[in-house]
Design brief:
8-stranded parallel beta barrel, TIM Barrel, globular, disordered N terminus, Bact_Lucif_Oxidored, alpha/beta, Luciferase-like_dom, oxidoreductase
């Protein structure tokens, strides 16, 4: 197989992430509590760590139908029951969080986890955090740019002098504690805008692509913009990292995977679109197309998942794949089985093929 030549010797990382949505099981009508959802998130992280996966991510929402509003708190709890797995936000809504508090939270997590903390920052698909924390939606992009700039400065310097537009200035401020790692790894999450991909390249940080369906080829221009921008401002391509995140369900066969997952996937988009003020229904024909071998939805047998990741690697030359496996009210027993198959059937092949 012809592999993309960018970062060809980098290790390939495989993991899972969660947004901790709280939706009804479409088959039973039962909805679990926020307490049970958090317990299951921690248990999923333990399973992933014990199975040898590389990364576990937790996302941020500020709604009653999601269980996690503070990823560093949840990741700190996970750090105490895991040993090796990297712990990241997926994503932190950086436009509406104070960068100093964010840095201190993740530096503390880094110390508690013995150097396993990361941040993936995004602008957020939901906007509830803007009025909640007193920010103007019109400042959406400017907030993200300023906060990214400040976070990266905090990551480099123990004593910081800084002046911006949206928060009080800093003058010889001590930024404590310092992380165990030299710097906290920082990625920018991108859903589809070239401007965000270019920003990640300009800063020389990781690019985390959220590819939730359709033809993965449409994301290749974003990766190209990322690398081109990084090259133009003088960053070494050897230091750049690309990750792919997406929805996934793994079963022993393709047909079993589609049969199991369809009611939950349809249910997920039904309530997510309602949250966004849209009405929609996913037909079985729609789902069959989304789960077909040519598309980006990671649903199928281990062999099908492997083929999809390898195909995307030919396009992107990425170094990381994270699967979101717990959406739509899916019972934890099925999530646990998916983690097992990802770790035992998918990961060994991908590591063998992509780490040569």
């Amino acid at each position: 197989m012809q592999k993309n030549q960018e970062n060809k010797n980098s290790p390939f990382e495989i993991g899972i992430y969660t947004l901790a949505d709280i939706g009804p099981d479409p088959l039973t009508g039962q909805t679990i509590s926020a307490k049970q959802r958090l317990d299951e998130v921690v248990e999923a992280a333990k399973l992933a760590d014990e199975a040898g996966l590389d990364v576990f991510g937790v996302g941020e929402h500020h709604r009653l139908d999601y269980a996690v509003s503070t990823p560093p708190v949840v990741l700190a709890a996970i750090s105490q029951v895991t040993k090796k797995i990297k712990l990241t936000s997926t994503t932190t809504v950086l436009s509406t969080v104070d960068p100093v508090r964010l840095f201190e939270d993740f530096a503390t997590l880094d110390l508690l986890s013995n150097g396993r903390a990361e941040v993936i920052a995004g602008r957020g698909a939901f906007i509830e955090s803007f009025p909640l924390f007193g920010y103007e939606l019109n400042d959406y992009d400017a907030l993200f740019e300023e906060n990214t700039n400040l976070f990266l400065k905090l990551n480099q310097e123990e004593m910081v002098t800084w002046k911006g537009h949206f928060r009080p200035s800093l003058r010889n401020a001590e930024i404590a504690p310092r992380p165990l790692q030299k710097q906290i790894p920082f990625w920018i999450g991108v859903g589809g805008t070239p401007e965000s991909a270019a920003r990640a390249g300009r800063y020389g940080v990781g690019l985390a692509l959220a590819i939730l369906g359709g033809d993965p080829m449409r994301f290749k221009p974003l990766v190209d913009v990322y690398r081109q921008t990084a090259r133009e401002v003088g960053h070494s391509l050897d230091t750049l990292k690309v990750g792919v995140t997406g929805h996934a369900y793994i079963a022993e066969t393709n047909e079993q995977a589609k049969e199991d997952f369809y009611p939950y996937y349809s249910n997920y988009w039904n309530y997510v679109n309602k949250q966004r003020g849209m009405a929609s229904h996913m037909t079985r024909d729609n789902f069959e197309y989304l789960a077909s071998p040519e598309t980006a939805l990671f649903v199928g047998s281990p062999e099908q998942i492997i083929e999809k990741v390898l195909h995307q690697h030919e396009l992107f030359g990425h170094q990381r794949f994270l699967a979101q496996m717990d959406i739509g009210g899916l019972p934890f027993s099925k999530i646990a089985k998916g983690i097992e198959l990802l770790a035992t059937k998918v990961a060994p092949v991908l590591r063998r093929e992509l780490c040569k």
